[in-house]
From TrEMBL:
It comes from Vreelandella arcis. This is L-threonine dehydratase. It is an enzyme of class 4 (lyase). The gene is ilvA. Homotetramer. It catalyses: L-threonine = 2-oxobutanoate + NH4(+). Its EC number is 4.3.1.19. Pathway: Amino-acid biosynthesis; L-isoleucine biosynthesis; 2-oxobutanoate from L-threonine: step 1/1.
Amino acid sequence: MLEATVKKILQAHVYEAACETPISSAPFLSRRFNNQILIKREDLQPVFSFKIRGAYNKMAQLSEEQKAKGVIAASAGNHAQGLAMAAKLMGVKAVIVMPRITPEIKVQAVRARGAKVVLKGDAFAAAAEHAQELIKEHGYTYIPPFDDIDVVAGQGTVAVEILRQQAGRLDAIFVPVGGGGLIAGIAAYVKYLRPDIKVIGVESEDSACLKAALDAGERVVLDQVGVFAEGVAVAQIGEVPFSLVKDLIDDVITVTADEMCAAVKDIFEDTRAVAETSGALSLAGLKKYIQQTGVEGETLLCINSGANTNFDRLQHIAERTELGEQREAILAVTIAEKPGSFKKFCRTLGKRMVTEFSYRYADSSEAHIFVGVQVKPGGEDRQAVIDKLRESGYHVEDLTDNELAKLHIRHLSGGRPSKHFEEELYRFEFPERPGALINFLTQLPHDWNISLFHYRNHGAAYGRVLVGMQVPNGDRTHVAEHLDAIGYRYWRESDNPAYRLFMA
């Protein structure tokens, strides 16, 4: 079967639609991890993912009668675009059934290429079931996204290019896994020609269907599938891919959503390409492999498998990046509710960068603050930060791995105080540099009490900060004078209706 698959890969029809993509070096990552790290740029395909290869090769095998009736597929997005483009080039009608979770950018791209889109279900399985119903009704030919030997052969041409382009040392190839078509094609070709090269699959931990199958010794259906990386949100590995990869691949690594977000940033910093989360999946696995094994001096290649992401998802990806790189600790800390406590807390942290701070006055004796603190990559010194705070008398809860805290509480902390009091509300722009916060606190009069504080680092030159202040004796005549002396831009927001409605 292996030799037959390799022959199919070498005979595959892909370049009428696909292009040969380059391998980009990743100098920043390579220096950081002491290995040569390479990225195969399948995001540069005409449909911004590798899926065009398998779709076109399968279409090329159809009879004229099948082409006349039209084709159909169920897809989370990238296969849909590949099939839509292939069908348009061949003049064949295409119907694509897509899960409702599919990013709008992918839906619009499929429609723009002339295919009819049907949105059905919340995951791939429901879309696939509906596609089968349409086949019975209209006689379409189903073009599978991964579970087909001709699709596997088309995807395998990625490996042909890799071994030709990287003829020298290559220790391991990291491949994203959804249904398994890409890793099956790559593993077959690489292990046939270069069995010394490791082929390692990478899965999202909440849709790890290949790992589950390998552990069970047979294909299994996951009870549920996470959709953060919708391009690999598959509940069961394909039958054809599994028959190949179960005896060929060297390992499977699973990664978290945060780790994928960090990999999106890494790819951008080295190539200026914006990968989708599933597109950065294999790099996340490559990084984890280095951390787990401690390898140095090796040549490791990952595949940026796609760049189809909604622009509005980038905010969430950026927010989770620091956590994915384990550069940020999220903590809940209890401090005394009295003037100077915030300043004392910041001095206890020392020169560490505060990445986020949320607090709202609620109790006259204790204040509960939500704080993000920058730590070393990998989070090696996170516990040291916690220990230092506890030794200084603070009660600390580590929320770094708490999904509720990361997704929701950080945006909800605060609200209204338990009783009415007078405060002045100001919005500031802080320069994003160490010491900016302590400088602000130091220059405030010692008897002013901070009653509200919210800040989040957004990677810009200036941080956006909201501060509520209680001024002793209600004397507000000198507030502007003190704030002007600090030197940061500010705006008074005490009369803002949003504040009055939700926070006062």
